[in-house]
Amino acid sequence: MYDRYTVNSKSTVIRQIITLVSIFAAFGMNIIANINPPNGLSIGAISNRFFSNVLITPANYAFAIWGIIYLGLISFGIYQVLPSQKTNLLLRQIGYKVAIASLSQIVWVICFLYRQYALSFLAMLGILLPLIAAYMCLPFPRTARQQKWFIRIPISVYLSWIVLATVLNGAITLKSWQWSGWGISGQIWTIIMLLVAAFITHLVTIPRLDFAYASVFIWGAIAIAVRNVNYLIISGTAIGLSLTLVILLLSFSFYAPIEQS
């Protein structure tokens, strides 16, 4: 399928290197943002100090998922740079999409740390859209084991969290503009946003039986429920949507073909 030029082409090597470097650069930027933020406050500190009343925000522990996200992304980056992956058609289809998302992640961190919330939302779209495009390249439900663990799951986990983060970033941006919510209470808007995120998750995960993507949504939804334990309507909705997703995925999985090993 591939001739010698294709296998050893400089463009393939350049793509592999740029993708790996972009992932490590984003990882490094996130470490700096938490250990020594350039504008004085970390991302979490900004969120807790200025946007503690944004109800769609999950409990602080939920953001520990970034450790899993970057573990997956670094694994993806190392896997795709291996010489044996030069002819991997799936990686060729994904192309620079993960690299673009990683570079946009750096821009997002800088914008958010300097409290440019509208720009941070645009940067978040710069993460989201390439990840959607990369996700659309993924084979479901049958995937070879290596591609499942080093390509499919890292992208699924990253995308799922970024969908939730985009909703949160949008809410923070509107809050920074002192948007009135058209007279609708914050609790109702939070439920609406949860329903939208759940609808997207159901639409994505059930046809593909993407448990990785679904697990991240459940993680985030439960964390939102924990943070809003005093608002029964919010916590109940978050837990109910999570349980519904679990039941549907388990039900449909009985009819799924067995994945390739």
Q: In words, what does this structure look like?
A:
With 261 residues, the protein is an all-alpha fold. Helices cover 74% and strands 0% of the residues. The chain contains eleven helices and no strands. The two termini are 23 Å apart.
Mean pLDDT: 93
End-to-end separation in angstroms reads 23 Å
**Total helical segments:** 11
The count of DSSP E runs of length 2 or more, i.e. the number of strands, is 0
Helix content: over 70%
Element string (H = helix, E = strand): HHHHHHHHHHH
The assigned structural class equals: mainly alpha
Count of distinct structural domains: 1
Q: Which percent range describes the beta-strand content?
A: under 5%
Shape assignment: globular
Radius of gyration: 19 Å
**Low-pLDDT residue intervals, each spanning 5 or more residues:** 1-5
Summarize this entry quickly.
By secondary structure, this protein is an all-alpha fold. Helices cover 74% and strands 0% of the residues. It has one domain.
Record keyword descriptors for this entry.
single chain; 261 residues; mainly alpha; 11 helices; 74% helix; globular; disordered N terminus
